[in-house]
Structure prediction request, 679 residues.
Amino acid sequence: MKCQIVLEGLICTSCAGKVQNEVEKLEYIEKANYSIASQIMEVCTNSDIEEEKILSDVKRIVDDIEDGVVVRRRWEKTDKKKVTISNLLFFVGLIIFLIAVIFDTDYLYLIGYILTANKILRRTYNNARKKIFFDENTLMVIATMSALYIQEYIEAIAVVVLYTIGEYFQNRAVNKSRNEIENLINLKVTEVTVVNGIKQYTKRPEEVEVGDIILVKTGEQVPVDGIVIGSTEFDSSSITGEAMPLVISNDEVLSGYINIGSVVEIKTTKKYKESTLARIIDLVENATSTKTKTEQFITKFAKYYTPIVVIVAFLIVLIPSLISYSNFNDYLYRSAIFLVISCPCALVISVPLSYFAGVGKASSLKVLFKGSNMLDDILSVKEVFLDKTGTLTYGEFSLVEPNDELLRLAASIEIYSNHPLAKTIVKENRQELFDVSEVNEVPGMGLTGLIGNLSLVVGKREFLIENGIEVTDQEANTETFIAYNNIYKGKLIFKDKLKSTSVTAIKRLQNKGIRIHMLTGDNNVVAQEVAEELGIEYRGSLLPEDKLNILSKYQSVGKKMFVGDGINDAPVLKQSDIGVAMGQRGSDLAIEVADVVIMDDNLMSLSSTIDIATFTKRVVLQNIVFALGIKLLFLLLGGFGMTSMWMAIFADVGVSLLAILNALRILYRKYGGNYDYEV
Prediction:
């Protein structure tokens, strides 16, 4: 069982780590994973536990470690801001500090310090109880108490005040990024109107059951996938990117569509957590639960970095003092500055935030990542393998010279298939269907069944031949062959249209140094025609296992990506280094196994996403170099007594804020054209 809990306001990296560790110690928890960027903790339990129990235990743990954090269910909205004792004590301490400055009274300085630093002191005490001795709170306590010891009262308290203010602004910046990302997708629904006869009542989306009748008014968003009862117009752009309104009459509608027509009732076909809307939000908000190698490195770096810094700070005091104790206060002050500068917040917050911003920005282009690690992996792609139907072409076939007899036979069995050709056959047929039993589908080949006791075989030419049927026609186009009672009856010919964006998208990918290959089940005549128009390599007449074999045996200097949309593409999507599914018309299985989902079926989005990944990586590297460079410079200056506590605060809080603001640039930059990424 999985449960997701929002820990709103928890951006202290050490506190977040301790909360996660303590939650994992609960006997019913298998694993817990917290993302500072999304402020969501996902917990996996080893048994069915009431959500209220999990929420209560997590709240108890959080309150013991960090105050001011609002713990709530993922789907709950709250405007509540916790006013904590720590915050009140901080402001009282600030007033006492100002009074102490006026009257220059030592004991008032000490009282002011204890009150303003109450949160940092409490965190350090809680750490000590749990035998955790090295984090940014420890650094601050050692540094400020060292300053107090040498009677640098103003600087000691100023460090605490500025650190606390800086932490507040960091929190604001992180929340700003989260809000920007939520605005990009803007999909959440908090209430659903359920109709029961003449009565109407509201439910939370998670409480809606399959088969419930819900009311969607004009301007409202469809909360759960279902069937429209009646007819109305929908704006589907937030889900599929389609600009033109859709008129849906007694047919399927996806959650996330906005009703722009008349009030309509919808019979739900899925629970909320299984609906399109919930799946999209889940992908966006939890993509950062899968860490990139850079994030993993920063996490390990911070773990060993802080103890090393404390040891170095101790040596800065110890070694000179052994030589001459008369300069003890001077070196203690240098050591305090060294500790303040060395806090690793700029890295441990800005790096995951950058990846979260990249994933969020990609979602605004209708591209959903199932892990932020894909942002790094996509930059290593050197070979892209594309399915044809539904990927390069629209997958909306039209019949050439339809035959009523053949249509009726084919439609009677193709109604059991989700293949694009099958859907066209069923749509074009206007006759009553035969009753077909014992239907069996061979993916990528065709279907067999019985009408009464007589066999019906529909599919590729070689599929009919494998079933012992003599086929007189040759395959020359996109075609479906039909045999009834072991006698070949003829074929249906289709035509498909290349997407208007395919040519430009292919050229953009090729300009990035990526080789493009088309792998299709269509015959070589059709495949060659499309490949020549696009200027790419191709292989035709392929079965699903053929695509899998080609991909597994292909030698590439980088990662291999496969892009497809059908059930028969699922094996190769799963096998490829990066599997990309077309989400608008793609099968549920293809979307499930893919690493990336393009919701608007537009290959141009893939090129733009590579631009986003490129810029995200650049921002991450900028933040690492900037944060480490500034800190190293100030550490050297501090070690030689050439800086002050005020400059140390800039090197800590100032650098953190600048790194976070730099990460936010990912959200505001335009992508998709020929942009120069040199900064």
